[in-house]
Amino acid sequence: MDTEPRLSAPEPGDLVGDALDRDIPAARRRHGLWIQEPVGRPRMPDPVRNAAVRAVLIASVTLIGAMVATLAAVADSWLSAPAMLFTVISTVVATWSVLDVWITRQVWNQRNGVVSSPSSAARALRRERRRARRQARRAATPSLTRVVRPGA
Predict the structure, then answer these.
(1) Residue 72: which residues within 8 A CB-CB, separation 6 or more?
(2) How far apart, in whole angstroms, are the C-alpha atoms of residue 89 and residue 69?
(3) Where are the beta strands (DSSP E) in the chain?
(4) Fewer CB within 10 Å, N or C, the chain?
(5) What gap in Å lies between CA 107 and CA 114, rounded to an integer?
(6) Residues whose CB falls within 8 Å of the CB of residue 108, separated by 6 or more in sequence, listed in order
(7) Hey, what long-range contacts does 91-97 have (CB within 8 A, 24 or more apart)?
(8) Alpha-carbon distance 96 to 102, whole Å?
(9) Backbone Cα Rg of the chain
(10) For residues 101 and 52, is the Cβ–Cβ distance under 8 A?
(11) Does the pLDDT at position 68 exceed 90?
């Protein structure tokens, strides 16, 4: 039994292929290999991402050192004391690197974050509201005519 014709993509203008495409819902149609989908969160700024990568690498080296210290202590090896000392020092460094990520993120947001000036659309809306309030006040108060005296 030859399955090649059934597995290949239908040619354009093929009546059977067109009928099959119409029967398949749009969500289940075949797409290309690479589909660009919008990401929910924007990408981290480069300095923050560098600090985060550095923190992850330091934390992983710390965990490896802790495992070496534990296994050396279980094996009653002479390496247990230096490994424990390395683990304590690298724990302090890992804590500092996590703080570095937090501080770098705060500094980046402070320097390059959202500018707190209102957008032109917000300004226009406020201008319209002020104009409407003024007109409402004018309509509510009786009109006062200004009397101008000669020579004054």
Answers:
(1) 79, 80, 83
(2) 13
(3) none
(4) N
(5) 13
(6) 45, 47, 48
(7) 91/62, 93/58, 93/62, 94/55, 94/58, 94/59, 94/62, 97/51, 97/54, 97/55, 97/58, 97/59
(8) 10
(9) 35
(10) yes
(11) yes
Token output for 52:
């985060």
- Greatest CA span in the chain, whole angstroms? 114
Stretch 65-69: mean pLDDT, rounded? 96
Residue whose entry in the numeric block shows the structure tokens 């202590």: 73
Separation in Å, CA 37 to CA 1, 30, 41, 127, 152:
40, 15, 12, 39, 74
In tens, the pLDDT along 12-61 reads: 555 555 555 555 555 555 667 777 777 777 788 899 999 999 999 999 99
